[in-house]
Amino acid sequence: MFQLRLSPFLTRTLLTGIGALTLFGCDPESDGPLTGPPAPAGNGSNVYVVNEGQFNTPNGAISLFSKTSKTVVDNNLFTKVNGRILGDVVQSMTVVGDQGYIVVNATGKVEVVTMADFKQVATIDRLQQPRYLVAVSSSKAYLSEWVERGKPGRVAVIDLRTNTVTKSIPVGRQPEQLLLANGRLYVANSDENTISVINPTSDAVETTIQVQDGPSSLVQDKNGNIWVACAGITRYGPAPTFAVVSSTKGNMIRFAPGTPTNQTVLPFASGGPSNLVINGAKDQLYYSYGSAVYQLNATATTLPATPLLRRNFYGLGIDPQDNTIYGSIAPFTTTGKVIRYQPTGMAIDSFGVNIGPNSFVFY
Amino acid sequence: MRTQRFWRRWLLAAIGLLGGFFGASSSQAQQTHAVGSSPSDSSQLSTVQVLPDVRVQAARPGRFAVGSRLTTIDSLALTQYRTGTLTDVLAARTPLFIKNYGPGQLSSITIRGTSARHTAVLWNGFNINLPSLGEADFALLPAGGNTRVDVQHGPAGATYGTGAVGGTVLLSSPIRWGAGTQVSAQLDAGQYGLEAGSLEGRFSNQKVAVRTAASYREARNDFPYNSPEITGLVRRRQQNAAVRQWSLSQDATLRLGEHGELMAAIWLTDADRQLQPAIGSGNNHAREQDQSRRLLAGYRHVASGRHESAVRVAWFEDVIDYQNDDLTSNSRVRTTQAQAEHTVTFNSKASLRIGGEAQHFAAEVDGYGKPVSENRFSGFGLLRYDPVPRLQLTANLRQAFISGRRPPLAPTVGAEWQFWQTPVQQVSLKVSASRSYRAPTLNERFWRTGDPNLRPENGIGYEAGLRHQFTKNAPWNLQTELTAYHQLVNDWVQWLPNTQGDYTPRNLRQVRARGLEASSQLTGHWGAYSLVARAAYGFTESEKVEGRAEDPDPSGRQLPYVPLHSFAFTTDQSWHKWQLTTGLTFTGYRYTDASAVDFLPSYTLLNASLGRTLAIAPNWAVTVLAQGFNLTNRDYQVYAYRAMPPRNAALSLRLTWR
Asked: Who is most buried in B36, B176, B267, B644, counting CB within 10 A?
């Protein structure tokens, strides 16, 4: 009896419910896979933006910006092409030959892709807090690894033919950027005041150069001099509030590879520099300091007093072809953006990227 | 354009749902029966279970929440989750979205498009949100700790105080006097290392009521999940996700003579959890221990039929200890608080409650660098007036004072009007308007990068709804409710990096939440068969509508982790000694970032349990219960990159004595 009475109600409810779900329940459409190669390779018209993503969240991504069309081709290129996530804290990307090496810090791996179409080639995993990769030849590269906070880091020797780690070289604490200059590999130990110098023939540390506290980024100018941005070291308590226990100031350092102890030290009044990059002609250096970007001539003997750009960038890049300056804003709660400037400091345009843009690869 | 679309959807849904239910009821019109039992509207909350003598009768705060929407989960429904947590209960039985980082992991609620900080959680009238975070982790609240859960939707700052912006969750254990002794024990065993147990004993006569409930739960949570890797989808086992927790609650109420009632309650909860890492992230061996101690004592005095006074004092201690490979962070907050109120019932039509509340927080939180304390006070007046039996009105007011700052005056007005009535059905119109506020949390004020001068958030919300009730003495009745709401929250706090790169909280935004809630519940008995079926749907649009230049998040996008659509359909069925419970929930896609670019796909989950009760001796019974979760084996994520278990099962054995 109740069946008869209830069925119109049930039918209507179910129909309404199903109707409502069909009407409302559709997810937004995802873009399909990219058709064809994402980018013509190697003529310098493409800018790959490294987006860290949020910490503890594997949403790091590579954005591809086309200089030709002045548009973002894709904001999650690796995932779009390969159908899987890239990883947690994408720290850096290096091109070696026609392959890209994407270093994923918190996941502890390097993803290898072909630059022609960004298709995955290999994963080098079981790394511990990898940071930066530099190739010494087409078959051999070095990768800095922090390993663990407060403990010595290491440099992994990678066989690019097999994409495997063949050797680990102990260096100082928190090794950051690597620079290949005059047949030696310079490793900036950022939690110390040293640079480890590795001989690529023996794959061993040959000497350790003492610099100032907190070396993190380094470049070589057209005269062969090595410049090191030392950010200073601020030590915090082990627990929140992470109160400042000690703090040292930053310095810009220049030395010739042959006479590493003969250093020009340009001190900063407070805090320290970061994001040291050099232009294509290797005669102008750029760095972030305070909430601004400064330009430094490779022959300078003092630091510039006035900034080139009064803007706080998380990442900084210089296009080697035309010296266009790329600065990135990284709010981390949402997607970031990149602003482009002429070498004079005049803004050109801006474009949206993914979460936490920290550096640029021009290829 | 956006607005038009919103209202079109609203109308479509409203017409569809009402059409269904009204049509059904009109086909019943020829049935002539006396009006059934009284409508169980929110005013019914005010009546305690049937009292043999009405000498002491508590007026629950719901009495003053006329015109708003309430979802109640009673002891019968809660019993099925007695070894689980409120996350399990709310996620399975309501369309509320609980942002869950994995089984047993951090679970934060969102009601009506707001965040977890905008939901007040009250235990016996006291706010138990963690004072440091300003929100509750529902995975730390075992379902067996209390016997009743009421979810009040929408702002109610005057009635429930700070944080009652999106909604309020009320936990309580109403007393049944003269019920004698009942004891029950349950053991659960399930996949992925689930072991749980619970024990509950109740006793009451006409003078004393005592209830003790203890529960324990542990799970390895080493379930398999699919990890996308270079070789394709790799089946991996979840690591670092084991949880272990227990809860003990003790309530006692003693009647003192004809006019007095003394009550005390203790609720202790303890959890030790590994924190489940994201798929594709390294395991940094994060672990958290949570401990809450809650003590409460109160006295209620009914001077005559007209005057009732109550005082309550409570002391809470909340400990959160977190460690991972790189850091430790410990936090302990002690809250001492008191409430006093006096209710005057002028006649059968009007009653007035006035009262006040004082809270003292003493916090030792690593992130603050030093011990801090904060005092909060508030005073309130709640008026209920029923000019005619079919019309109920309330007008409430609360003013809070927070360490020298004064959040805005929070008034609420509400009305319910039963405007149409036939012998078998009634339709009521409900409206309410409310100002709500949220005091800054201790973290927002005292964290090293916090801002002591942060302004309280405040919201203004309106809602209107219809309730239809189809009542027959037998065999069934049907209740349907439809609500539309609109709320603006101002000075919404957002943590953003400052020029030094430190994250600091700021009053940056205005957020607008609006939507629609529809629910329908059918209750019936046919011979040995009984059925309670409930369908509920929520449409929630919540977006930032105004911000300041510093806020990089764009305006006009749906807030992250607020599903536009959610739906729940549950049934509780019994036939002779058999019982079957089913739960079907649909959760629409959720954006995972403020720019509304990435989203998690929608998912539908089906859970069911089948039980059989056997009488093994006089007064003794055993129930065997088989529970199945995620029966369609859906691969889904509630929070981005956090794996959830595939289809899994548990077996329960329950022993009851009475």
From this structure: B267
CB atoms within 10 A of CB B356: 15
HEC secondary structure over B49-105:
CCCCCCCCCCCCHHHHCCCCEEEEECHHHHHCCCCCEHHHHHHHHCCCEEEECCCCC
> What is the rounded CA–CA span in Å between residue B476 and residue B522?
7
Kindly state the tokens that stand for A213.
Answer: 């506290």
Tell me the sheet residues that pair with B504.
Answer: B496
Q: What distance in Å separates residue B378's CA from the closest CA in chain A?
A: 31
Q: Mean pLDDT in chain B?
A: 88
Residues A97-114 have a mean pLDDT of 95
Per the CB < 8 Å rule, is A24 touching B539? yes
Average pLDDT of span B443-467 = 93
Chain-chain contact of A56 with B17 (C-beta, under 8 angstroms): no
Chain B neighbors of A147, CB-CB under 8 A: none
CA distance A236 to chain B (A): 11
Give the distance from CA A118 to its chain's centroid.
17
AA identity, residue A54: Q
Is there a contact between B282 and A88 if contact means CB atoms under 8 Å apart?
Answer: yes
Contact state of B228 with A84 under an 8 Å Cβ cutoff:
yes
Q: Which residues of B touch A83 (CB under 8 A)?
A: 228
DSSP 8-state class, residue A269: S
- 3-state helix/strand/coil string of B145-208: HCCEEEEEECCCHHHHCCCCCCEEEEEECCCCCCCEEEEEEEEEEECCCEEEEEEEEEEECCCE
CB contact (8 A) between residue A241 and residue B499? no
Instruction: Using CA coordinates, name the residue in chain A closest to B642.
Output: A57
Structural contact between residues B267 and B294, judged by C-beta atoms closer than 8 angstroms? yes
Give the Cα separation of B181 and B212 in Å (integer): 12
The string of pLDDT tens digits covering residues B466-516 is 999 998 776 889 999 999 999 999 999 988 877 666 788 999 899 999 999
* Residue A355 near residue A335 (C-beta atoms within 8 A): yes
Q: Which residues contact B359 (CB under 8 A, 6 or more apart)?
A: B335, B336, B337, B375, B376, B377
Residues 6+ apart with CB under 8 A from B30: none
Q: Which chain B residue has the Cα nearest residue A242?
A: B367
The 10s digit of each residue's pLDDT in B280-321 is: 888 889 999 999 999 999 999 998 778 999 999 999 999 999
Instruction: Give the other-Cβ count within 10 Å of A16's Cβ.
Output: 22
Would you state the pLDDT for residue A235?
85
pLDDT at residue A254 above 90? yes
The answer to whether B229 contacts A148, with C-beta atoms less than 8 Å apart, is no
> Which residues from B are below 8 Å from A241, CB to CB?
366-369, 447-448
Does residue A245 carry a pLDDT above 90? no
Position A238 pLDDT exceeds 90: no
CA dist., res. B651 & res. B639, Å (int): 27
- Interface residue of B31, B230, B365, B449 to substitute, partner A, most A CBs within 10 Å: B230
Predicted confidence at residue B446, as pLDDT, reads: 93
A contacts of B590 (beta carbons < 8 Å) = none
| B217 or A236: which leads in pLDDT | B217
DSSP B268-296: EEEEEEEPPPPTTS-----EEEEEEEEEE
* Residue of A10, A54, A59 to mutate, testing the B interface (most B Cβ within 10 Å of its Cβ): A59
CA distance B234 to chain A (A): 12
Judged against a pLDDT cut of 70, whether residue A6 lies above it is answered with no
Q: Do the interacting molecules here have an ipTM over 0.90?
A: no
Which residue, B625, B628, B520, is CA-closest to B570?
B520
- Write the DSSP symbol of residue B39: P
Phi, psi of B376 (to 5 degrees): -135, 140
